[in-house]
Design a protein that fits this description.
Low-confidence stretches: 1-23, 25-30
Strand order of the largest sheet: 1-2-3-4-5-6-7-8
Number of strands: 10
Helix content: 40-55%
Strand content: 5-15%
Mean pLDDT: 91
Distance between the termini: 21 Å
Bound molecules: flavin mononucleotide
Length: 397
């Protein structure tokens, strides 16, 4: 056990403290280490731990620990993406970093929320007005995160150009992989990761040029498909052939990382794990809800954006699943319908309606800690779990 502990400590650069240098740990810490799998060599990682986060400090801290932090930029303007990726690079030093975009096909050509607004059904608008009244939500102070710009081809083109100009090593495609974008990314030395919810997605992503895949099971936060992580990961591994696969959906402890490796993945892709970190700085009311929640306190709903989305159950999801509620609209109509209300709920802290994307792994969120500590614990637990499995299997002989 002590050997495993020291191996884990060495693997994370020995650190649970905040980043201090260009990369956590001694500057001459070799890349690779006891947990390194072949996917680590693609990026020069110490451990195959990948993190998705909407927080630049979280993504930077994970990269500095020896994994790969990916910044979720889907709701950011092209100029914000330029500035934020430059900041991420400054904070991460020479450690590899990534960016995530969601590029769904079939969106309107131009950024014109007013045009979409005019098409919204009266029944849906009345339902939303009813929520303002029932929960005494004051008018929004500004346009909400989902309405400050419309998901459109115009915005997507600008976002892709900003990513292409950056020096990120990894581009993670949440939904959609436009062929021209993929080709230009690869020409400029960036690797393409695709999030997949089924073996069919995996085959399509490989045909479209993905360099690595995430098998994102039903447990996970955000846009999830119906297949559970345990069933999905080995199927995607089989479909992927030589293309490396990362396991996602409920990866919250080292036992989960070890299980992903046992299922054939080369590492883990994590999201919910980083919500309760000092660097993420989530609203205290939401942190309280996350800590109180168990795995059965999350729901998959289309009420957030028009696409399936796992989040904490709240009065928001309950209202939208009531028998007399209208069915959520398709993206981007739902964005425009609810975007300003969602912004007002957060701005005015309307507690019963406040919610957040999180996976079923929320059960493991018990307190708030620095990223470096969460990372070090994850690595230590993974090595311990692998050791325990080996001992168990050895005991059977
Ligand atoms: C708050 C939050 C927001 C997310 N937003 C996105 C997103 O914009 N694009 C995307 O591809 N995935 C998004 N995800 C999903 C993650 O990429 C990842 O697949 C997922 O969190 C893995 O499951 P886990 O949450 O159980 O670790 C989000 C996850 C969280 C927790």
């Amino acid at each position: 056990m002590e050997t495993i502990r020291s191996a884990a400590k060495a693997a994370t650069g020995g650190g649970t403290s905040a980043p201090t240098g260009p990369r956590d740990g001694p500057p001459d810490t070799p890349r690779g280490g006891p947990l390194a799998t072949p996917v680590c060599a693609l990026f020069g990682l110490r451990q195959p731990i990948f993190a998705f986060s909407h927080s630049i400090p979280v993504a930077a801290a994970v990269s500095r620990c020896g994994g790969l932090g990916t910044y979720g930029a889907t709701r950011r303007t092209p100029q914000e993406i330029r500035d934020e990726l430059a900041l991420l690079r400054r904070l991460a030093g020479d450690a590899p970093i990534g960016v995530n975009l969601v590029l769904p096909p079939g969106m309107p050509e131009d950024d014109d929320p007013d045009a979409i607004e005019r098409e919204l059904p009266e029944r849906h608008k009345a339902f939303v007005r009813g929520l303002y009244d029932k929960y005494s939500v004051p008018p929004p102070k500004r346009r909400g995160m989902r309405t400050r710009f419309l998901r459109s081809n115009e915005i997507a083109r600008g976002q892709m150009e900003a990513v292409l100009e950056s020096d990120v090593e990894l581009v993670a495609c949440g939904i959609g992989m436009p062929a021209d974008f993929v080709e230009r990314c690869k020409r400029s030395g960036k690797r393409i990761l695709a999030l997949c919810g089924s073996p069919k997605h995996a085959r399509r992503a490989i045909d479209s040029g993905a360099d690595l895949l995430v098998a994102q099971g039903h447990d996970s936060a955000a846009h999830t498909g119906p297949i559970g992580t345990f069933s999905l990961v080995p199927q995607v591994v089989e479909a992927a052939g030589d293309v490396p696969v990362l396991a996602a959906g409920g990866v919250m402890t080292g036992r989960h990382v070890a299980a992903g490796l046992a299922l054939g993945a080369q590492g883990a892709w994590t999201g919910s794990l980083w919500l309760a970190t000092d660097e993420y700085a989530i609203h205290p009311l939401l942190l309280k809800k996350l800590i109180a929640a168990g795995s059965d306190d999350t729901v998959v709903t289309r009420s957030e954006s028009g696409k399936t989305f796992r989040q904490l159950r709240s009065a928001w999801s309950d209202e939208w699943s009531a028998p007399d509620a209208p069915r959520p609209l398709a993206m981007p109509y739902q964005d425009v319908l609810v975007g300003d209300l969602l912004g007002a709920i957060d701005d005015h802290e309307i507690e019963p309606l406040m919610h957040y994307a999180v996976g079923q792994g929320v059960a493991w969120i018990r307190d708030r800690r620095p990223v470096a500590e969460v990372y070090a614990r994850l690595v230590e637990e993974t090595l311990a779990a692998l050791g325990a499995v080996a001992a168990l299997a050895g005991g059977a002989r």
